[in-house]
Amino acid sequence: MLYSYFVYIVTNENKTALYIGMTNNIQRRLSQHYFDSKNAKKSFAGKYNCYYLLYYEGFESPETAIQREKEIKKWRRKKKNRLISDFNPEWEFLNNEVI
Hints:
This is GIY-YIG nuclease family protein. The chain is 45% helix and 21% strand. It has helices spanning 26-38, 44-47, 62-74, 77-87, 95-98; strands spanning 5-11, 18-23, 52-59. By secondary structure, the protein is of the alpha+beta class. The chain has a single domain, classed as GIY-YIG endonuclease, CATH 3.40.1440. Strands 2-1-3 form a 3-stranded antiparallel beta sheet, with helices on both faces. 31% of the residues are buried. The mean pLDDT is 95.
């Protein structure tokens, strides 16, 4: 099944910062994070160079995706780490998987 909306988690090269977001075009959004990291640094992801994809999950409706994004954002770091590890045990950068 193809999904129209995604909740995703990106990190920096050293995996010290996490950014949770929602988008309808994950490839474009990763490119925007990369551009902001290298240029303007206006967003959290840009300031902390978070453009390495660790986790994503697809949704059919924007409402469901937004609800999930808000849920994950409220979690403590330990719970976010577990979510990532269950999906991506080696914490590999998945950018090439979605491009």
